[in-house]
Structure formats: C-alpha cells, structure tokens
Design goal:
- By secondary structure, the protein is an alpha/beta fold.
- It has 3 domains: 1-196, no CATH class; 213-254, no CATH class; 288-390, 3-Layer(bba) Sandwich (Glucose Oxidase, domain 1), CATH 3.50.30.
- It has helices at residues 2-26, 45-61, 64-72, 77-81, 87-101, 121-132, 138-159, 164-180, 183-212, 227-235, 241-254, 331-334, 350-357, 369-372, and strands spanning 288-290, 292-295, 298-305, 320-323, 339-342, 362-364, 378-382, 387-390.
- An 8-stranded mixed beta sheet has the order 1-8-7-3-4-5-6-2, with helices on one face.
- Strand 4, helix 12 and strand 5 (339-342) form a beta-alpha-beta unit.
- Helix 1 packs antiparallel against helix 9 and helix 2 runs antiparallel to helix 5.
- It is globular, with a radius of gyration of 23 Å.
- It starts with a helix and ends with a strand.
- The mean pLDDT is 93.
Length: 391
Amino acid sequence: MWGLHFMTNAGSYQSLNDLADLYESLLGGAPADEAFRLVRGQPNELQRVQRDLYLLTEQARARPAVADLITRDPGAALDAIRRTDGGPSFLQAFAEFLDAHGHLGQPYDDLTFPSWGDDPALVLAEVRKRLLHPAGDPEHTRQRLAAEAEALAGQLRARLRQRPEDLHRFEEALALARDAGPLTEGHNYWLDRMLQAHIHRLARRVGRRLTGAGVLDREDDVFFLFADEIAQSLREPADRRAKVADRRAELAHWRTVKPPRVLGKPPEVPPPPNRFEPPPRVQKDAHVLRGIGASPGKGHGPARVVSSADDFARVQSGDVLVCPSSNPSWVPLFGIISGLVTNTGGALSHAAVVAREFGVPAVVGTGEATERLRDGQLVEVDGTAGEVRLL
C-alpha cells in the first residue's frame, strides 16, 4: 500500500516544488510559497467531494421530514428516513454519494477506523452540520480561487513579456504543476483511503471468522494480532483472548506517553529544508504561535482541538481546526472551518494543500499547537504571516 503511495506522489510534489523555486527566482522578494496560489481552484477529487456533500445536504434540506430526522439524530436517522416522506429519493442520492466517495472517512492511517461506506452515519453527521449552518455552493469558491490563480499568472506573464526564455520556463512549469500537482491529494483519495477501506473490511471479516472459532471475543480484536498470528489462528484456531487483553492495556499505556523529539543521538547536521516536512518551529512567545503560512488570509474563532476520530463531531461551523495533520477524509471539515493550525507539515503537506484548495487560512508546522491551544480558546489564524494569535 505505501509502496504505491510513494511511487505515485513523488513526481507530483516535485512539479509543485519546481514551480515554487522558479517563481521565487523570477520574482526576487516574492512572498514565501506564493507560487502555490497559481494552482488553486483546479477541478479535482477533493473539490468533487466537497460539492457532492453540499448537493446531498441540499437534497435533505428540500425534504423537511428527512432534514428533521438527520438534525435530531444522524446516528439513528437511516432506518427512519426509509419510512418518511421523500426518504427513498434522498436515500438514492445518499447511496450514489457513498458509491463515489464511500472509501473515505478514516481520520488517520490506522486500519481500525471504518470508512464512510462501513459507517454511513459519519456522513449524515456532516450533513447535519450543514443543515444547521447553511453555506454557499463550494463551486463558487472554487471558481473564485481559479480566477485569482489566473490573475496572478497574468501578472507574472506581463512582467516576463520582454524575457521570452523565462516566460517559456514559467509556462512550462505552471502547466506541469497544474496537471500533476492535484495528484498530491488524488493519490491519497484513490490509493491510501481506498486501500485502507478494503483492508479494514477484509480484516473485520477475518475477525468474525476467528470470533466464531473461539479465538477472539469480538471481530475488532483482530487488530491486536500480528499478521503471522492471524495466519496461524486461521489454520489452527487457539484462544488468543488473553494476548489481546494484554495488548489493549499496552496500547492504552503508550497513548499516555509523550514521545521525545529525537530517539537516540540528535543528528549533528540538520536535514536540508524542504516544503513537505520542515523541522517544527521552536515557540518562544506565550501569545503567538509561529509556523508556515500555508494558505493566505485571516480567520478567527474558537479553537477546536482534534486528536481522535471522536473529536470530528465537535467541529462546528466557524471553528478553527487544530490538529496534528490531516488527509482527504477531513475534507468535510474544511468546508465549515474558519482557519486551520497543525503541529506538522510544510507548504506541500496534505493539510496545506487542502486548505489552499478551499481558501481556508492555514498555519502549519507549529510543532505544538495541539498542546498549546485550549479547546474553545479564541484564536486568529494569519495564513499570510504564518502566525496564530491567542485572543
């Protein structure tokens, strides 16, 4: 799975990195990573997920009985929707959404998390947020960002009109970045999320078989066995419930431990700077977190610290999302937040790319945002300056 991941995305990131290097060399003094604004607003999988979720919400809004059920209890709405006025037609639209995007939904690269297809209530929870806090058609935002990107490209073309060789280099780099750049998230959408969904489903089927054979208590206990132990248990079933209990306790312990920045001796020579994962910033100001301005603009609101899948439901319209990192399954949150702050990543990280796609002000690579910011604390995200101010 990860072999396919790295085979696919290296050239994509290189195309964006090359565009940024060229842009900064052609425009001395250009703001750091301004070049990435040139590739915003291109049609891609993430834009399609966001718009399809908007259209699904509007389908529910047009059917008051359906909207009421989802708003009251999205977890229990599906069965009741089937029996309500307008329910069957909404469920048809819902099934089409899951057919297209049901392999998303896992917040982290952890096989224990179900996809939207495995737990459709996760999607209805996001529909509920949009029913309660209506927002405009995301296609309008995409078109605005695309127009801004083309206007920025036009400004550089005008400056290079008398420098035909440089203009040719720019056009070539821009075309390649716009063609290949979307694969930075497209590979994650098609490979990482889909493969994780398939492997999760297979693992649970194996878990059900081992539960029936008396090896495990529950099917999700399979995630506490190693692959060779699973193979052995399928061939020669034996009780492994005590081993699972020990490993559950061990995992609970390690979740309470904060890891050090470095294991062993710190490197004498720091790694060369890069735009995907630069070293986290060392924070010295009690009232300002500094990082990398990944998506321009300002946004403010209550900080919503998300460190587990259970935290997704707490993110509401207007919140500032604070998290370690993200992936395409987080796209529904990007449609409602006012800003983004992450611990890790650079201007080419997943979180940064997605924030730019949806015009969300973002600061990444702060190193300790999830520890420094309290849940509910008012903050301002300045994605242009790369600063998060505590209000």
